Every structure is written in C-alpha cells, then in structure tokens.
Amino acid sequence: MTTELAENIDWVGYVDWDVRDFHSFDTHHGATYNAYLIRDEKTAVIDAVKAPYVSNLLHNIADKTDLAKVDYVVCNHAEPDHAGGLGALLANLPNATLLCNAKCKDALGGYFDTANWKIQIVSPHDKIPLGRKTLSFLDTPMVHWPESMFTYIPEDQILFSMDAFGQHLATSERFDDQYDLHSILVEAKTYYANIVTPYGKQVQAVLKAAENIPIKMIAPSHGLIWRRYVSTIIGEYQNWAAGKYAPKLLILFDSMWGSTAQMADAVMRGATLESDKVSVQFLHVRKNTLTRIALEMLDASAVALGSPTMNMQMMPFLSGVLTYIRGLKCIPKTAMAFGSHGWAGAGSKHLDMWIEETGWLRLMPPIQSKFKPSCDILDKCEEAGRKLAQAALNAVSKAAES
Ligand code: FEO
C-alpha cells in the first residue's frame, strides 16, 4: 500500500474495515482515521486515531522512525475518533510536544488529564519550522467543532484538513486517483450532508480564507487523500456550502397498512408525469438509513412528508428522522404533508406543523385520507406531486438567476 504523500510525508493511520455505526452515521463501507508522519530535522505526527487503534498508529510510526525522535504531535480536532488515542500516543512518544489551538487544549482537558502533557498553543500566525518543511495553521471554527483547525505545509503545498473534505470509506488505496471518483464523491457528499451541513457559512468562510493558499494535496482525517481532484472537491464543497438546489423531490414517508404508501406513490406519479427533469427520491423512513435520508435531503428543493396517525402522533421513526433533519439546518424546501388515519388525522397535521416550524415553504394544507385513499384523494396527491415538481424546477431556475 502506498503511504507516501510527498518526500518524507507518510500516511500512518488506521483503516477500520468493520465499523458500521459511527454515532448513527451508517458507515456501510467502513472508515479510516488518517494520521500523518512528517520526517525532517524535526519529526511531527498530525492527528492521532481512535483509542483502540493507537498500537496500529504507533506501529506505523515506528516502521518509519524511532518513537523517541517525534518532536511534535499536532491535534487538529479534539473529537475522539482522532484525539481519543492522544493520551496513549503521547505516553509512547517521550519527547513529543502537543501542538493545538487554545480551544482544543480546553476540549482535550475535558477528555484527558492533561496536567503532565507538554502542550504548545499555536495560532494562525505561528510557524513551526521542522527543517526544510514548516507547519502552519488555519483555525476553522465550527467546521465542525469550535476548536477545528487545518495544518498546512507550504513547501509541499499539502493541507491537512481534518474532517473537512473527508469520506467514510475503508480502502486499501490512499489516493483519489487510485479509486473510483464517483464513489469517493458520493461518500464525500454523504459525509458533508450528515456532519457539515449546519455549518455552511463557516465552510464558506474557510474556503474564502484558503483561496490564496496554493494547494497541491488535501489530506483529510477520513478517507482518501485528494491529489488529482483537489479542485473538484473544493468546487463540490463550494456548492454544498452555498446551499445549491438540485431539481429533486424527496418523498419521505412511513405507512402502517399501505394507505399512506399509496398516497406517496400518487405524489411520485404526479411529479414524474409533470417533468422528467425532476429527480424523485422515494424513501420509506424505516427502509432507509438516517444517513441516506440526510444525503438526499441536502440539495432537494421540494419535499413531501407522509405519515399515518399513531396514538395521535406521526409515526415514531419519522419523528426521530425529522428531529435529525431539523438539526442539520438544510436549505429550506417547498413542502407539503399527507397521510391516512382512522379516526383523527393527527399524523399529517403534525407534519404540516413541522414544516411551518422548520421555516420551509408550505405548498398547501395537508392531504388527509380516512383509511384507504379514494380515487379522489389519490388525484389530489397526484396534483400535489405535479406542483412539487414545478416548485423544484422553479427553485433551481430562481437560484440560477440570482
Ligand atoms: Fe472525524 Fe469530527 O471527527
């Protein structure tokens, strides 16, 4: 496996082939925790790994250099998938000083007893010379934690971007040009949709700040390293952070005995009859993961939400999904609610309220069906699908004009 990013700069992280759940993120293709070793007159390690895999990290470092020769460990981000192994790492690097920003030091103090750690606070004005190479830093607050930071080596033009530009993808390859680009981009978008979406403004600020930095390579803390498609992934991040709409209708629903599913189907039929320029995603909430739903929600311009009534509420899994979606602060959608009920139409009413409270554009009052939908109700759903498709196209063309 190639690990060399540039002369004397190597990947020394861990490939986690088995992880399938990452605090609710569905890591169906595994993950990696990337760490990097820079050997010069002085030696530095950038980022650690999850606590259980420190011995793998130490083995990878020891394969390239004497552990006693490591002078610095940079902590770009205090979240435990990277910093969880810091304590054990530092315990095995007797001469290492930890480099991090002030907020990171505070966060690490909340996880570890750092009293005996050698810590040097770094800021964006600092340069840490290693010999021929230099470490410099860029604070990236709320991308996606307050202490988040990039490290940059100007001599090699490599940006170590922690979570940003990352993907949850376990592979034996390390670089973007060694793997299928489409798959990497789907995973990068999935990562953005689930982890970074609430912080679009902060991402835009970071992209602006990084505009004048020459970047030959982006080495994130998850997934493949960008070397051939650097401008591609930066362009994608610009689009995602700007909240660019796709001509997409997302139909998200649950169903008990098939009535709400029939209504969902009629909405889809209306949308597809209206325009073949609108992509429709038809997602039953209990048959799709949160991760997939968030991915499809990211750039959808129209959404139809469907639920029957259970105990005077919407269905419970849908309620949980919508809590997650609200927290992601997606770009506003044109939306409507629908659903069947037995004796009280509470499910679709609650969805309708959710649409209003979330600040989305409410297309129409909810369409409700007592028990099985009649032809009349299905016609109404079909008409709603047509209107949602028009709204999706309008959102895209309006955004293109502005
Ligand atoms: Fe990969 Fe925010 O940690």
Task: Write up this protein.
The protein contains twelve helices and 22 strands. It is an alpha/beta fold and 402 residues long. It has two domains: 4-242, Ribonuclease Z/Hydroxyacylglutathione hydrolase-like (Metallo-beta-lactamase, Chain A), CATH 3.60.15; 248-390, Flavodoxin domain (Rossmann fold). A seven-stranded mixed beta sheet has the order 1-2-7-8-9-10-11. Strands 17, 18, 19, 20, 21 and 22 form a six-stranded parallel beta sheet that branches. Strands 12-13-14-15-16 form a five-stranded mixed beta sheet, with no helix packed on it. β20 (334-341), α11 (346-358) and β21 (361-362) form a beta-alpha-beta unit. α5 packs parallel to α7, α5 (181-196) crosses α9 and α6 (200-209) crosses α7 (230-242). The structure holds MU-OXO-diiron (FEO). The site of MU-OXO-diiron has 8 residues, from α2. The site of MU-OXO-diiron (FEO) has 8 residues, from α2.
Sum up the structure in keywords.
Rossmann fold; 12 helices; 6-stranded parallel sheet; 7-stranded mixed sheet; Metallo-beta-lactamase, Chain A; 22 strands; binds MU-OXO-diiron
Uncertain spans: none
Secondary-structure-based class equals: alpha/beta
Q: Largest sheet, if any?
A: 7 strands, mixed
Oligomer: single chain
Radius of gyration: 24 Å
The CATH superfamily of the largest domain is known as: Ribonuclease Z/Hydroxyacylglutathione hydrolase-like
CATH topology of the largest domain: Metallo-beta-lactamase, Chain A
Number of helices: 12
Order of strands across the main sheet: 1-2-7-8-9-10-11
CATH class value of the largest domain: Alpha Beta
N-to-C terminal Cα separation, in Å?
47 Å
- Average of pLDDT: 97
The total of beta strands comes to 22
Shape: elongated
Approximate helicity band:
25-40%
CATH architecture of the largest domain: 4-Layer Sandwich
The count of domains is 2
Strand proportion, as a percent range, falls in 15-25%
Bound molecules: MU-OXO-diiron
